[in-house]
Amino acid sequence: MNFQWYPGHMTKAKRQMQEDMKLIDLVIELVDARIPLSSRNPDIDDLGKNKYRLILMNKSDLADRKQTEAWSSYFRSRGFFVVCLDARSKNGMKNVTDVIMEACKEKMERDRKRGIKNRPVRAMVVGIPNVGKSTFINSYAGKACAKTGNKPGVTKGKQWIRLNKNVELLDTPGILWPKFEDQMVGLRLALIGSIKDEILNTDELAIELIHILTGMYPGVLKDRYGVDEEQKDTDILCEIAEKRNCLSKGNELDYSKAATLLIDEFRSGKLGKITLEIVK
Ligand code: G4P
């Protein structure tokens, strides 16, 4: 399956990101806990070098808890601070401030020793589209905190949200571009709904999902749809269409309807908590 992307967006986003990086101390990067690596753009490691780094494993309400723990250890072992989060229901949000403070402890201590007072740590939220950046900013900082307004000089044109007396957050998230070169990455992004469905072949996507699920989570499709998992992936889709009575106008089995149903149910968590990528 081929996925499209638009180079114009990439160039612009990257330039903007480079500018914003000059203003901040801490990068708060959101990833989707169901595909923690495929929902990252590793270029952020270069763009954010010399910055403190926090990874928020968002949508962890939809991900396999064991895998989320394994991925948290993976990122921690690479020097990131990590918080698992469900930004929509605000689960895990309480820990974020503490971890931000912990991540920037060194800088705050250094400032204190130099006699620099009232210089808050500055942070920005980054991530590929649809990982929950806006949801996070709104639920974390939206109501509770006052916007600080533009300040002369370095922050011109930028709006900062004061989180507490030590931390300020840039109110607009940085949009990273997904990495499409690897077809498996593209496939995983499509499955979680990060690529516009109009450019996807839903039937093909559903077959791929069936293939992944029967391999990684045997029993899930049997439990949800009562299908026999010991048959070809395409036959499993046919059986889902039968079991769920997916019919076209002429009362024929409608496989595309079944494909859409399966993908929707996966995305909304009805198939259970599933992570599509495991730590190697
Ligand atoms: P973005 O800024 O990174 O592009 O993402 P955004 O906040 O717009 O979130 C994308 C979708 O993900 C939204 O759903 C949002 O509600 C959902 N979302 C964000 N965080 C979480 C989370 O922790 N768990 C779950 N399950 N979902 C989350 P939507 O369908 O586009 O909108 P809506 O259903 O909220 O109206």
UniProtKB/TrEMBL annotation:
CDD domains: YlqF. This is Ribosome biogenesis GTPase A. Transmembrane segments: none annotated. The gene is ylqF. It is found in: Cytoplasm. GO terms for biological process: translation. One of its GO terms (cellular component) is cytoplasm. It comes from Roseburia porci. Required for a late step of 50S ribosomal subunit assembly. Has GTPase activity. InterPro entries: G_CP_dom (IPR030378), GTP-bd (IPR006073), GTP-bd_ortho_bundle_sf (IPR023179), GTP-bd_ribosome_bgen (IPR019991), GTPase_MTG1 (IPR016478), P-loop_NTPase (IPR027417). GO terms for molecular function: GTP binding; GTPase activity.
